[in-house]
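batch job 7 of whatever, protein = Phospholipid carrier-dependent glycosyltransferase
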Amino acid sequence: MTLTAEPRHRAMPEPKPPVPESKWRPRQELAALATLLTATAVLYLWGLSASGWANDFYAAAVQAGTQSWKALLFGSLDSGNAITVDKPPAAMWVMGLSGRLFGFSSFSMLLPQALMGVGSVALLYSAVRRWSGAGAGLLAGSVLALTPVAALMFRFNNPDALLVLLLVAAAYCTVRATESGSTRWLALAGAAVGFGFLTKMMQAFLVVPAFGLMFLVAAPLTFWSRIRSLLVALAATVISGGWFVALVSLWPSASRPYIGGSTDNSLLELALGYNGLGRVLGGSGNGGGGGGGGNTMFGGSTGITRLFGMSFGTEISWLLPAALIGLIGGLWFTRRTPRTGRIRAALLLWGGWLIVTGIVFSFMKGTVHPYYTVALAPAIAALVAISVRELWRGKQFLSVRITLAAMSAGTGIWNFILLDRTADWFPALRWVILVGSIIVSAVLVVGGHQLRRYTSVLAIAGLLFGLAGTTAYAVETAAHAHTGSIPTSGPATGGMGGMGGGPGRSEGNDAALESLLENTDSRWAAATVGSMTAGPLELSTGTSIMAIGGFTGSDDSPTLVQFEQYVADGQVKYFIAGNGMGGGPGGGSGTSSEISTWVTQHFAAQTVGGSTVYDLSSPTSS
């Protein structure tokens, strides 16, 4: 591969061939890798239980999975198997199995998430190292580990941790497939993406155009051989993700939980509707996305600047300007390389990942939250590492030095702006980064051949100033607890918190209500509208609580007829008036409101602690 910033007689040297994974690596490289992974593990594991149950919604499903194998299989919110969470169950499988192995606790639930972070860093290092060397691999892994939203999500129980691990694994497999034209490696990449579908549905497919483009452009095969390999990978994706969709479709609906978030009790409809086109176009139960600039929990205003805005900016964009500049510069300097040129292929892979996913996130009109941006972290990390390494090798060219200087200055200026959003938090840091980055940029531009004398000092200074902002924010993120359904990174004073409330919240629980529920032996100790009350009560009592209408109380499950039958059969003991997100006496809307009204008409209310409770085994005379 040749980088041609100047005429061909001044081209950059060819990179050394990748070191096969099976070869012994230099001792210094192994020590550096061990240091990186150990530091990542410390960052993600230290004080891991500080966030408690983190997101009660998913924690309740994990607990249910430790109590019922059927609940584990389907990702049920409750061990009585009334309804599932509104995502596929792959992440619940991992956390639930950890709970079964080590006993259910905050630590056993979050441990796999942290280890997924370490695994993602290791895989990204390996993927970048193969074509750009150990230095670039270590830098890529470090940037990923120190991205604030990564430090948040690898210590939290949302599905995003597993999704990132699977997508980085798929990227590694695609790199292996492209360098040798291996159909087997490409099929493994497809299988990883398919399993990503079982983690967070359609979001897993956003990387597919980049993977396909790199293999189609750069694999050392004939055109039709490349097409055949891509079709095999597509088949692997369909099988890996489709088997569970088929299982849910074939399983009798009366003997499994309702698929939460769907309109027809179908996992496929959930994928295409609420978790698919609904997220992008709005509708299908999606709200909040595309709101005004102040609607930061739901992404703020749509548009090309959304990734830099108040909602997403401090989560992911610390090195985004550098990544974009490096991508553009790298593609320009490799424009004359052969079709199979590896550096250009890598830029297509990671650049395609960043551009496609970034554009979708920027213009989504449905529900979108700041932590979704963790899916961009591996691509940004890889682009920064690859472009810095390749440009640094050609720094004797003025055009290359200007590109490096732009990356440094752009990072310093943008980090200053981001840190100014939390101006009272380490106020001097933003000035140190700004001044240091500009000095590094100036030296790069005017240094000329004198740079050779200060290469190490300049490289270290550039990395320190470039990574200072994201490192400080990531460490601060890991240093305090995060709870709720919409966690955010950064200083506690800068976060937006989550959503919650209701008598089931840990701060609102009381001994009387918990004792009442714990002394039941029915299939469901109680029913309530939505998960805001049901989830925390399940966690505090260890009992099964039916969340009528699912997460928001808006799903049409159970129907009034079904609920009446459950009551008649003695399968649900109490009804707790909660705070579902819709209307009606008990919250919720539609079917949930009908059930709430039926309960209030046929059963007497009593106050237990601070909650209104109806004993469904004792109907009133009316």
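notes: DSSP finds 22 helices and five strands in the chain.
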